Amino acid sequence: MVLTRDFFFQAGQMLLVLLLAPLLTGFVRKVKARLLRRDGPPLLQPYRDLIRLMRKEVVLAQNASWLFRVIPYIIFAGTWVAAALVPTFRSGLLFSWTADLIAIIALLGSARFFLALAGLDVGTSFGGIGASREVMIASLAEPAMLMIMFTLALIAGSTQLSAIAAFMLSSQVGLRVSLGLALLALIMVAIAENARIPVDNPATHLELTMVHEAMVLEYSGRHLALIDLTSELKLLLYVSLIGCLFVPWGIAAPGAGAQAIAIGIATYVAKLAAGGVLLAMFETAIAKMRVFRVPEFLGVALMLGLLAALLRFVSGSL
Amino acid sequence: MHGITFDIAHLLAGSLVLLSFMQLYQDRLYALLNIYALHALVLAASVAWQAFVQDAPHLYVTAAIALLFKAIVIPIALHRIIVRLGIHREIETVVGVGPAMLLGMGLVALSMVVMLRVTTEADPLAREDLAFALSVVLLGLLMMVTRRNAVSQVVGFMSLENGLVLAATGAKGMPLVVEISVAFSVLIAFIVIGIFLFRIRERFDSVDLQALDRFRGERR
Amino acid sequence: MVVYALYGVAALLALAPVAVALSRSSLASTVIYGASLVVTIALGVIGLKSLFAPAASTAGLPLGVPWTGAHFRIDALAAFFIIVVNLGGATASLFALGYGRHEETPERVLPFYPIYLAAMNLVVLADDAFSFLASWEFMSLSSWALVIAHHRDRENMRAGYVYLLMASFGTLALLLAFGLLAGSNGNYVFDAIRATHPAATLSAMVLILTLVGAGSKAGIVPLHAWLPLAHPAAPSHVSALMSGVMTKVAVYGFVRIVFDLLGPPAWWWSMAVLAAGGITAVMGVLYALMQHDLKRLLAYHTVENIGIIYIGLGLALAFKAQGMAVAAALALTAGLFHVFNHSVFKSLLFFGAGSVLNSTGERDMEHLGGLIHRMPQTAFAFLVGCVAISALPPLNGFVSEWLTFQAILLSPQLPCWGLKLLVPAVGALLALSAALAAACFVKAFGVTFLGRPRTPAAADARETDSNSLAAMFALATLCLVAGILPGIFIDALAPVTHALLGVSMPQQSGLDWLTIVPIAESRSSYNGLLVFIFVTLSGSIAAFAIHRLASDKLRRAPAWDCGYPDPSPATQYTASSFAQPIRRVYGTAVFHAREIGEMAPPGSITPARFTVELRDLIWDALYAPVASAISFATERINILQFLTIRRYLSLVFAALVFLLLVLAIWS
After folding, report:
1. Are B134 and B115 in contact (CB under 8 A)?
2. CB of C111 closer than 8 Å to CB of C31
3. What does pTM read for this prediction?
């Protein structure tokens, strides 16, 4: 009985993240437009975009290989599995013991590996630009993420996300400097990984300013729909991750009743909304960096993560 | 166990270290001044919190001095000096941002090792606060050493002094006399540096130390 | 057991004269490689059986030094490395059954190949210092002969020269180490060495000598310079053996001496090993990113993985020095698992590079491209190798990196201050090298196999023969199996850690769903099988949903390329352009990288020229001064060759007078 209920919640979470992802992106776009005194596209526009793309014919380059056609499914699967393992409204997910935070980071890394390969597959220079810049950004963002993971694992005594969330909810944690530094570093890494301003502009049409968009330039139709859905899912994953790790209040405990679940879902949606508003405000207030300023930006994130881990190592019981 | 009060003090000290790192990262003068103002603001908050926790009312005066002079008066005055002297707004660095950050990390590690080894019998949070204070001092020195612009050196000196104040209040007790005398000496030094900057600027049309080196008349 | 192993080694040695006899015949390569395949499989089975045997088996032969003879032994550690060596040997032989047919000078390769395999096995089986060092030298010399097999190329001769120098240097260091270990009574048998523990300073010197000696063979920075010269110069199956297997034999030497023969470690030993491992990992991958020769890239990347292995070994030493035996077992298991994983996927990648070299005649990535269409199966196997080496789930590279990270997370419990600062820094270096490795292999696979062919050689490539493909697919399957079922491999390593440290990791095979739990259930766990199943399931659900709900029309057209499709394949990214952002971020500091672009003036028809200058700072700072100092000294001493008879007589006279003086003064 407990098993089927847990399975039901796990499947429910998988469905929930999939359904909410385009809504979050639509919400961010709407808020950005409003901040720029425009009306902006409707909230549900990303859903319409996905459906429209799915109905279209795929136009493949003549020398695109089988790998090019398979990659959208691979990256979608990897990101979806990673998003399903981050606690959103209820901790104690059924399969949380199969992959801890390191494995989730690595799953996102393999999605990025294949996306970079997709950029190189057709053999155009724009794909190459996107792929080479993406791996440069990843070469700093991933170590920063791992350092943040170290800090959290040292504080919470585990690398399982559900266990870390439960620890953060308990009263043992207090305000720690390492947590503050880790939060700052995680926000910077999240911005870089999701290709938001100031690292990359998701709405640009100038190819020389693209990183993520340049890699997927050759995709069309249902493949592009899957890739768009994947990037929306990745944004949702990172906002959920920040919420679960640093703002964990409201997450229902594993054995809780229906009321706690309802509160959990409501707080989760509120966290997503707050994250979306903050992201929109940040993106509107700041300009995109030159590509070779991004390593300095991410280098700071790596330093913050390293400093946080160092403080944890040195202070021991604190 | 340590309650929320100690955690807040600790967090404020850590923010001071973070702001020192951010000062190292800046490459524009106005942004550096804003960060320094924030630095002084956080210092004032930290001293005021210590005054509340230790129940030492004279520290409120220290906090007020820090807030008034270091967070408001000095940044505004420096802003004016920059405009009057026409100093160009980018900070020339001797060492790039990356190596400066790495050196900063090394200095923080060093100060942690030194402080935690020297003060073995004290309360753990106080030890870490002292280590943070030493880090702020060392990072201020690093800024003075790796920046060529004279105004950024002044800011480095100021943030170094902030670190000293943090250490003094953290160690539970700093007589008001000492604080006033330190503040006055800083003010005098500041005025003297300002006057010299004006004179140098009048004579040589620049306050870039590298350029000024050439006028010393020595061949190197 | 060990007797059977020695029979196998003898069989391999016997193949060498057979190769010489058959050298002109066309059957030679088939016979030699086929026989090597059979013998190495047999040796691998022997290793597998000995791994789970309760006690070590020993044997002695009356060869070698008169008063000691030669001792051989298989215990758990040796059995594990026998498996690694012979797995590499078997797959290399299988690959060479196809690849070796294209060899132009088989008489220079075939006799030395079985000797090389035999020597590597003997190093692992050796139980006393003489047989160890003799086998080590055999290994170096036979691989040197294979490196200079294509002697017409000057680069290969230079590579062989540097290799011989570094190998001699390494053997000298190991000789001194064994001399110090044997002590004043001079007993070189390992059992005797195990029983006596030298003093602290002597142990420290042995550690340094072993780190230098075994490390130079493994490829620790700064002693790695021979590796990217020698490994690419040899034929591809030998490159795979050198990179994938011989470096592991060097790691075996290190583990045997430091964990088994030396006494309890001092507090600072682990710091030296960890620092060496961390620097090696990052420098190796940065070097690899700057390369555009496929085999040189793979050779430099071996350096990175050796760094990762040494990080695991350093952590094990740190935990052992503090008496934290279970944590030490975890770290040692992580390091040894990575030994196995690396030999598997590095061999796979070298086989892929060999197939590409065979089909196109090109090793330079910037002359390849689009091979996924012409060589689809090689491309698939190479892709599996790239995903595995980049430490991506659900393959095996991820599992050993995960275990290493788990070991790093246990290290706050270490009381030593230096370690408290060093371990997070090494963790950051490990994370950095993992991310850069993924970048490196996106470049390697993308530029070689994807895109459009850059030369006619790449456009006309053909798929390789079935033996090579069989070897590659066997290794690719092993990558997947080791990634999905890591518990089996961790339990297989338990006898090894038990023999060296006294404890082993918790039993993994009884856990639900084949999860691995390295420390405790509440702390961390990983289930490769379920991750693999979930990803495939999600992908299938997505594919099913798409095919039901979305349009399935598809049309081929020229590439979009923002409306400017360019028919010339020269406009796509090359290896050096792909690496340019990373070169700019890391290369300016580490390699003094400079990019020089010379544009022709407008109206001129001379082409623009773009040059990238990289300097190997380690070569300039370490090797070049040493080489020039040695040249200077030898120039001076060379005068002794040209003295007159009177001068020679006076030298003899001076030596005699000096000895008499010493005798007179020294009481």
Report:
1. yes
2. no
3. 0.90
